[in-house]
Amino acid sequence: PGQIVRAAVLCNAVLQDLADKGRVQADDFCYIPGRAANAATRGSRVGASSSSLSFARFLVEKDFAGFLIGKGGEKIKRLRDQTGATLQFRGPAEEVTLILGQDQRVLDIRGSADERNEAIRACFVEMDAASMST
Fold first, then answer.
1. Burial of 116 (0-12, 13-18, 19+ CB in 10 A)
2. Dihedrals phi, psi of 81, to nearest 5 degrees
3. Distance between CA atoms of 31 and 130, rounded to whole angstroms?
4. Tens of pLDDT, residues 44-76
5. For residues 89 and 69, is the Cβ–Cβ distance under 8 A?
6. Rounded Cα gap, residues 123 and 103, in angstroms
7. Is the Cα torsion angle 113, 75, 96, 62 positive or negative in sign?
8. What's the number of CA atoms in the CB half-sphere (13 Å) around residue 127?
9. Using CA of residue 10, residue 16, residue 18, residue 20, what is the dihedral sign?
10. What is the pTM of this model?
């Protein structure tokens, strides 16, 4: 679990560096069918607006899911209230299209692009806190 958290923290650092340099935009993290095929012909960034609903999914270890949920669901409720996004964990029984191990969970984050991005940022902050406590 510690290696996964450290890898996620490093990914966050790289993404933040790219964002600081203006090389990454919010809609780069929104799946748009056919986007890769149309990228060369599109010319401009036409994608989801900040008011449209979007989602992000992350594969996390069960221990981190428990850490992010917190005692009595307190931490995940706080994250939902702070960001306005919906955060939900799904296990192997709910994610039949993925082959999840018993110790893996999918974190599903939904909301407007701004809500989703804020929730992702907040989750990475929590990952940083988890990596410092291990």
1. buried
2. -65, -40
3. 28
4. 333 444 446 778 888 888 888 999 999 999 999
5. yes
6. 19
7. positive
8. 22
9. negative
10. 0.58
